[in-house]
Amino acid sequence: LAEAKTRQVVKPKIFGSLLAEVIRKDICSGCGACVSVCPVGVVTMKSVPGKDEQPTLIGKCILCEYCYNQCPWTEPKPSEVDVFGRSRYEKEELGVVLASYSARSKKEEILKVASDGGVVTSLLVYMFENGFIDCAVVSCLSKEEPLKPKPKVVLSPEELLECAGTRYTVSPTLIGLGSAVDEYGKERVAVVGTPCQIRAIRKMQYSSHGALKYGSKVFLAIGLFCMESFYYDKLIKEYLPQKTDLGKVSRFSIRKGRFIVETEGKRVVDVHLDEVRPYVRGSCHICTDFTSELADVSVGSVGSPDGWSTVLLRTEKAKRIFEDAVNTGYIECKPLDQVKPGKVSVAKLSNLKKEKSSHPTKA
Ligand SMILES: Cc1cc2nc3c(=O)[nH]c(=O)nc-3n(C[C@H](O)[C@H](O)[C@H](O)COP(=O)(O)OP(=O)(O)OC[C@H]3O[C@@H](n4cnc5c(N)ncnc54)[C@H](O)[C@@H]3O)c2cc1C
Ligand code: SF4
Ligand code: SF4
Ligand code: SF4
Asked: What does the pLDDT average to over 315-337?
């Protein structure tokens, strides 16, 4: 009896655990992984006033623990050893990096719509046109709600142009990965995501409870740099209409500490980031990953001149694909150490994010 009393009862980690440890603690980053992996489809995104959409249980849970175990905020976290076969060397302050460049697209139509150098869109176009992928999962704009990002399963390079650019509110992109596999039966998928979304993909691939059904179909994980993202309800529905007509917004950017919104080439918002900081999502306050440290390739604007992208190649596969895209005329590049401000400014922001993260469950 004494032995029985001391024996630990291991409770399953099911949706209720996700609710208690992540969603109610306001550290859900809305990646959509829990929605896409639920085998009985009982997790969905539902609107919660002031908090955008949150995962919600809408049916009978079969206690499989999948939702909990793909979440980027639950333990165990995927590691560099899982993904790259080794930890970073001491000098690799941005994580495992095999080569780094400042790069931009050589396609005019991509440069016109891209956030920075259009490297993300160009890599996807290159992979489509050269048979590496049969699908890309990206974020696009909703047709129903103004400036609202939503996942998109892209089946041809032509569709990519309308998805280029940056939206600073969350796209539950991994719902798109579920759809690419379950509805479209795709086998070689490139996914573009923020660092938290890339972490969920790595959990699908490497965790002992990973949803391999989806993770194994990811051919390349393209990670974006990300300092923070904002609640759609607060930034887009409350703040922005006081400044401009949502219907006319053509571009968002964050540069040198300023939040900028353009309509038809004119800056209608150009404010210090502090003005919009109250709208930052809860998860972003505990997040320590600026450069998508577990991606195959990471892309951001910091470190490169305007109109160019900083590219960190972390796996041999990504390096080969990037270099082929350069050699075949999709992308032009210079080594990152030959441009200003270069790697120093990326490292500075990466360190800043790690330092300012403020939660015991830092990730
Ligand atoms: C929320 C957020 C915060 C960012 N913060 C920084 C930062 O602080 N510093 C920095 O250097 N770079 C940041 N970036 C990255 C930067 O804005 C560009 O995405 C990156 O430089 C790639 O530019 P590109 O011209 O190569 O991409 P493009 O060719 O324009 O392609 C952009 C890709 O990003 C995808 N995308 C757009 N919005 C989202 C979203 N909300 N969620 C997921 N995917 C999306 C699109 O679907 C597209 O595939 C951030 C990006 C996001 C989404
Ligand atoms: S069935 Fe599995 S994935 Fe779906 S809610 Fe329950 S534990 Fe989560
Ligand atoms: S972060 Fe992603 S997996 Fe975790 S609860 Fe939120 S939507 Fe689900
Ligand atoms: S700051 Fe972190 S949690 Fe927030 S969107 Fe970016 S990667 Fe996700």
From this structure: 98
Query: How do residues 11-57 score in pLDDT, each as one tens digit?
Result: 899 999 999 999 999 999 999 999 999 999 999 999 988 789 999 99
Other beta carbons within 10 Å of 84 = 19
Q: Which atom of ligand 3 is nearest to the CA of 174?
A: 2
Count other C-beta atoms under 10 Å from residue 268's C-beta: 16
Stated pTM of the model: 0.96
Q: Is the CB of 235 under 6 A from ligand 1?
A: no
Instruction: State how beta strands 99-105 and 331-335 pair.
Output: antiparallel
* Closest CA relative to residue 154, chosen from 138, 172, 171: 138
Q: Report the atom number in ligand 4 closest to the C-alpha of 292.
A: 7
Say whether 306 sits in a helix, a strand or coil.
Answer: coil
Q: Tell me how far apart the alpha carbons of residues 249 and 245 are, in angstroms, rounded to a whole number.
A: 7
**Ligand 2: distance of its center to the CA of 180 in Å?**
20
H helices present in the chain, as ranges: 2-6, 15-18, 33-37, 66-70, 80-84, 108-113, 119-129, 173-182, 195-206, 212-215, 232, 316-327, 343-356
Highest mean pLDDT among 49-58, 279-288, 349-358: 279-288
**What's the CA gap between 8 and 33, in Å, rounded?**
30
Q: How many CB atoms lie within 10 A of CB 116?
A: 26
Residue pLDDT, tens place only, 182-231: 999 999 999 999 999 999 999 999 999 999 999 999 999 999 999 999 99
Distance between CA atoms of 309 and 322, rounded to whole angstroms?
Answer: 13
The residue whose CA is least distant from atom 2 of ligand 2 is: 64
Around ligand 3, the residues with Cβ closer than 6 Å are 18, 22-23, 28-34, 55, 70-73, 200
Structural tokens at position 201: 């993909």
Whose alpha carbon is nearest atom 8 of ligand 3? 34
